[in-house]
Amino acid sequence: MNRFQENKMEIDNRTIKLGEELKKELKTGCKVKMAAATFSMFAYQSLKEELEQIEELKFIFISPTFTTDELAKEYREYAIPKKKRESSIFGAEYELKLMNELTQKALARECADWVRRKVQFKSINVDEEIDNGIQIDNGQIVSVDKLKNFDRKELGYENSLFKSSRNLYHQPQSLTYLQNFESYWEDDEHFRDVTEEVLENLTLAHKEHSPKFLYYVMLYHIFSEFLEDINQDQLPNEHVQYKQTKIWNMLYDFQKDAVKSLIAKLERYNGCILADSVGLGKTFTALAVMTYYAYRGKRILVLCPKKLEHNWNMYRHDYVNNPIYDRYLQYDVLYHTDLSRDKGESNGIDLALNRWDTYDLVVIDESHNFRNGGSSDADLEDGRENRYSRLMNRIIKSGVPTKVLMLSATPVNNRFNDLKNQLALAYEGNAAQLDAKLETKSSINDIFRMAQLAYNQWAELPVQERTTAALLEKLDFDFFKVLDSVTIARSRKHIRQFYDRKAIGDFPERLKPRNYYPDLTVSRSDISYKRIYQLLDQLSLTIYQPSSHIYPSKRALYDKEEGKGLTQLGRETGIKQLMMINLLKRLESSVEAFRYTLVEVVKDYVDKTLQQINPYQTAGGSATLETQVLSDDDFDIEDSNTDFFVGKKIPIRLEDMDYLSWKRELEKDQAVLAQLKDLIGQISVQEDQKLQTLLQLIDEKVQNPINPGNQKLIIFSAFATTTDYLYKYISKYALEKYGLHTAQISGSKGFKCNLPLENKELNTLLTYFSPKSKNKKAIFPDDDREIDILIATDVISEGQNLQDADTMVNYDIHWNPVRIVQRFGRVDRIGSQNKFIQLANFWPNIELDSYIDLKARVESRMKISVLTSTADDNVLSNEEIEENNYRKKQLERLQSEVVDLEEMNEGISIMDLGLEDFRMDLLAYLEQHPKLADMPQGLQAVVEAGEEEPAGAIFLLKNIANKTNLSKKNRLHPYYLVYVDSQGKTVYSVADTKALLEHIRYITKGKDRPETVLVDQYNQATNDGVNMAHYSSLLQSSLDSLVESDETSFIDSLFATGVTDFLNTGLEGSDDFELLAFFTVLKKED
C-alpha cells in the first residue's frame, strides 16, 4: 500500500458510514467548510455532539437557495428544485420517520441556537456548477470529495437503494479538494449571505403559531395543486373594470368571492350552477357575473319563468330607482316557454328574427325546470322537441361558443340525473368535453350512474342508519370532484362561519311559525271544504278536451303539431289536468279566487259551448267551436311555466266530432258547477272566515310588534285574484284603523297602492315598502312616507331583498314547499336590522293527509282518464308517490319550524359537498400573506377543543405512496385530515373531510395569536416539545386508522359495482404518509 492509498478512505455508507467517520474528525475547535445542495437539521441532530464542539462552519449552497432573485428556469434537470432545497432544512422525504416523532419544534430551536453561534451560510446566485464536498481543519486538513446533500442519507444513516461511494482524504491529497472555496466565499457578486434566511426558516419551525395561521397553512398544503392549476386566462381579468361598477360595490364579500369563482368555472368548464341558499342574493351575484362579460362585449341572454321577468327587467334601464344601472350591461330577457315558440314577440324581441345562435352567455334562472333533459330519440324523429332540446340545439350548440350559468335553489332532489341534465347544457351534451377538463378516473355519465346507485342503496337502509355520513361513505371521490368543479352552493351556516359578521351582519332569529286553520265560513257549517271537494270530484272538465271526441277518421286533420312539441290533444289534456288542480289551489287560496275561476272561467266556458251546440243540434249546418284563451295569470308560478299554453289551437268543427257524447258530459259538469256557484255565492266578506282571521292578525301585528316600531308585513298568495281581493279590503281597513298604507304587486300589470305616488311601478313600490334595504334616501331623499303592508304574488318570491319587514304571511300554502321557503327569504336575509322575524301560515281546515291525498288523486285520475300525446297512461309512479310523501313531511315541518332548503331534502344537499369556500378563503388570505408558500412542513399550533369535541390531535398527512383505496372516499386525496382523541380513537371518518375542515375553521376562527394559557399548558406537558411520545403515539394511531380504513375500503370494493384495482393493494404503514402540519387540541385546565 502506497502513501496515497493510506491517506484515502472509500466510504460506501454500508460497511463504512460517512457520519461515523466525520464524528472522528470533528474535534474541539476545528473549522469546517461544506458545499452542498441542501442542509438538514436532522443531519445536525445526528452529529450534534461533535458539531457543538467546532469553532465554525462555513456552508455554501451550490445552487441558488434562499436567494431573492429566483432563476426563471431550473436548467439542470437533475438539480433539486429551489423550493425543495429550502424545505430540506426540515428533513427530506426519507427522513419521514424522524419527522413523525414530532420533535421538529424542539430540534429546530436547538439547531437555530447552534447556527447563531457557529455557522454562516452563503448561496451561489447564478446558475453555474461548483464543486461540492467537506473540508475539516482540525490541525490537519481532512476532505470529503462528494457531498450532494448534507442529510442523513448522505451520512449513511438512511438506507440508499443503490450503492454510492465517496472518499475521505487526509493530507496531502485533501488539499486538492474545495480549493476554490475561499475565493467563492469572498465573491460577493456571485455569492450572498443567507444565514438570516436560514435562521428565519428555522425560527418558523419552532416559534409558537396562532391557530388561525396553521389553519391556513393546512389549506395551503391541501389546495396547493389547485393554486398551481389556476390559469390566469381562467381567472377574472382585472383589466376588465368590473370591480369599479355599481353592482360590485353593492355586493357582500361572500358574493364577490362567488362572482370570482363563477367566472373561473365558466372560463374553465363553460358552465356551472349557483345554488346558494335562499336569502344570499343569487340574483345580484349573477348580475355581477353578467356585468363582467358585458364589459368584455359579450351578448347575454337571461331565461326565466315569465312570472319572474321583473327580477331581471328592472335592472336593464336607466331609471331613477335602478341602483345598479350600467350602460354596458345589456342583456335580453326571454321566458322558458319562449323556447317552444317559433314566432311572435316576447319582452320586446321578435322570436322569428332573433339570432339565437350568437349568445355568448346564457343565464338560466330556476334551472331545475330543465332537469328532465332533452327529448327522446323517438320524439325527435317524430318532430317533437322539448324546450331543453331547443335550448341545447338552437342556442348552445349552434353558432358561437356559449357559456351557461344556472341559478337554482334546488338543482337536485333525490335524482342525481337532475343535476347531470343541467350540467350537460354546459358541455353541449358531449360528456367527453367535460371529462377531459375534469381529469376524473371515470366518465361523467359513469360517475352519476354510480352516484345514483349509491343513493338508491343508501335509501334502502333503516331510517336510523340513513345519515348524511353514511351516504358520503358510499359516494365516490370523482362525484365530489365533479360537483366541486361545476357548482357553488353555500348555506347560511357557511356564510356565518366563513365571513366577518361585523361586516355583513347576521341573520335574524326565526320565531316559531304561527299557523291558522280557518273554516270557509264564519257561521255556515253546511259550506265546508269537504263538501266542495266532493263536488269538485264529480267534474270531468272535458270542456278542455274536445279533441278526445273527434271521430277517428277526422283525427288526422287536427294532429298537426304546433311549436314542435305537443299535439293538440296532448296540449288539451295538460290544460284539463292543470285546471282541475288549479280549482283546488284557488279554493285553498281564497273564496274570491275560487269563485272567479269556477264561475267566470270554467262555468262561463261550459255555458257558452252548450249555447253553440244546441242550435247546431237543432238546425244542423256547419259550426266551429269557439276556444277559450286562458291567461297564464290564472295559474300559479309553476303551472304557468308549461308549454301547454304555447301554440295556436286548431278550431274544431262540430260535424267532425261526436258532439252528443261530449254534450252529455258538459251538461253533467254544468249541473255540478251551478251547485258550486250557489254555495260559494253565499260566502260574503263578513262570512269569509279566512279574511276575517287575516284582519285579526294585522291587528295583533300592529298592536304588538315583534320588533319595536316595526309594523311592516308581507302577505303572499299564489294568485292575482286573491291579491286583488285582499287589497280591496285590507288597504281600506289598515288606512282607516291605523293610518297604514298598502301596496299590491301581482302579474305584469298588477301594481296598486293607496299612498299617492307619481309612479306606481314595481321598483318604486318595493322601495317605499323596504326603504332601508332599497336605499330609499338616495332615490327619494325628500319623501319620508312609507308603505307598511305589501300584498304580492310569487312574482317577487325570488330575487328581492325586503328585509325591512319582519313578518311574512302565506295566505295560501303552496303545493311546492320550496316556494314557501323562498317567500320567507324576502325577510329572512343576512344583514337584517330586525332581531326577530315571524312566519305565519294559513292552512285549509282539513287533515294534511287528506289534503295531500286529494292532490295525488286528482293527478292520477287525470292520467287514467285519457291517453296523453306521449302515451303516459300510468297512475302515479313510485317517484310521484315519493314526491307526495316528501311534500307531506315538509309541509308538516313547516307548521312547527322554518327550515332552510338544504335541510328539506332527505339525504344529501350539494352544500354538504363543495370545497369552494375553503379555496376562496385561502386565496383571500394569500393576497395579504404571500409568504404562506414558504412555510416548512411539520408546523404545529395549540388550539382549544370545541365544546362537544374531545382533546387530542388533528394531523394533516400526505399519502406519498400513491396507492390507496381510500382515494375513492377521501375527496382531499392525497391529503388526509385525521382527528383523534387522547386515546387514539378517530373522531371524524375519512369520508367526512368537509365537516372536519369546517370544525377546524370554527375552532381557529378569530384566533390570530397563540393561546398563551394553552401553549404554556402544552409546553409544560411536553418539556417544550422534547417529550412528544404521547402525540407521536396519537400520530401512529391516526396512521393505523387510515391503514385499517383502507383495508375495509378494498374489501368493500370487491362487493361493489365497479372496478377493483388488484395491483393497488393499499397502504402498508406509516412509511406511506408524511406529516405536513398538526394541531394539539387541548381542554383548558381549571
Describe this structure in words.
The protein has 1086 residues and is of the alpha/beta class. 41% of the residues lie in helices and 12% in strands. An eight-stranded mixed beta sheet has the order 1-9-7-6-2-4-5-10. Strands 19, 20, 21, 22, 23, 24, 25 and 26 form an eight-stranded mixed beta sheet that branches. Strands 13-12-16-17-11-18 form a six-stranded parallel beta sheet. Helix 7 runs antiparallel to helix 10 (195-206), helix 27 packs antiparallel against helix 28 and helix 27 packs antiparallel against helix 35.
**Approximate strand percentage:** 5-15%
Low-confidence stretches: 69-80, 561-565, 862-875, 1049-1068
Radius of gyration: 37 Å
For the secondary structure, the number of strands is 30
Form type: elongated
Strand order of the largest sheet: 1-9-7-6-2-4-5-10
Total of helices:
41
Query: Terminal Cα separation, in Å?
Result: 73 Å
Secondary-structure-based class equals alpha/beta
Overall pLDDT level? 81
Helix content: 40-55%
- Major sheet characteristics: 8 strands, mixed
